[in-house]
Amino acid sequence: MVIIMDWLGTIALLIGIILIILGIGMTFSIELITMIMDKFLGLIAIVFGLILVIGGSMIVREE
């Protein structure tokens, strides 16, 4: 259970940092930062989606 909480804390920290950088880019109209962060967040969304699909299919197979 401790390992899961460490991962959740790490993920929350990374997402917080990403959102702060994205907010700075949007607040001061820095197009380059906004564009790079949009691409990076899209990549993260794809990775998390794949992890969830694989994990969900493993759970369904076990039942």
* Strand elements, count: 0
Number of helices: 2
Oligomerization status of the protein chains: single chain
Biggest sheet statistics: none
Parts with pLDDT < 50 across at least 5 consecutive residues: none
For the residues shown, what is the average pLDDT? 81
What radius of gyration results from the CA coordinates? 16 Å
First-residue to last-residue Cα separation: 23 Å
SSE run:
HH
Helical residue percent? over 70%
Structural class: mainly alpha
- Estimate what percentage of residues fall within beta strands: under 5%
| Overall spatial form | elongated
Give the arrangement of secondary structure elements.
Elements: H1 2-27, H2 31-62
Helix pairs in contact: 1-2
Description:
The protein has 63 residues and is mostly helical. The protein has 2 helices and no strands. It has helices at 2-27, 31-62. Helix 1 runs antiparallel to helix 2 (31-62). The protein starts with a helix and ends with a helix. The relative contact order is 0.08. The model has no long low-confidence stretch (mean pLDDT 81).
